[in-house]
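for the writeup, i need someone to sanity check this before i put it in the appendix. the sequnce is what the collaborator sent (i think, or maybe the updated version? ugh). structure was predicted straight from it, no edits. if anything looks off just tell me and ill rerun, i have time this weekend
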Amino acid sequence: MGFWSDISAIFSAFASQDSFEIRNALKSDAVWVFGAVVAALGGFVIMWIYRMVPLLDRHLERTIMVWSYLAIAFIIFWGVIDRFIFSNQQPWSTTVPPLLFMIMAWFGAAFNVRLRTHLSFAEFRTAMPRTGQFLCLCLDAVLWFVFAVIVVVTTTRLTALSASNFQIVLGTDNVMQWWFLITVPLSFVLMIARVFENLIDDIRNFKSGEPLIKQAVIGGDV
């Protein structure tokens, strides 16, 4: 099949909402171009939503992280009580927390991209000329975008595979694994929005003469 035929097949598969068709359509190499375009457009849309609703900009990922953490803590806490006091154990008590941790971790990663608390080599870059600093920040944006697109495409394929095989969360009767897996590509689209926000700030700071490299603070505000 040609490139445009593959792209058309992907659109048709998603329009059908059939997991088997989606899984087969995502096997082609055209999915990488499709994924990059969709991820970029999704990032721009989310960035626009953040601009329109500053409350989401400040609290969306952190709210998801906190509630995921509380859910994990509650399941583990009740699991201990249930096992040692009531001599019982819910079969899903050891399978759901790792999935919730996955959600917490990747949404947290998206937020910390915005805070630049990942490897940024700030001490090294501060000693560089201003143009070198700006080029390093642009390189960061490119690398984060490429990394995010890779994750979006591969985890979307995994989600479609899980849905088409009707995989359930171990220990449950009707909780599907893809309900959790779909949050991974979504969190990386949020990450792309944060990458775009940082890049716009960097371009503005470069033009205005503002400092480009700032001290990153884990848990700080955007």
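The chain has a mean pLDDT of 89. The chain is about 75% helix and 0% strand.
thx in advance!!
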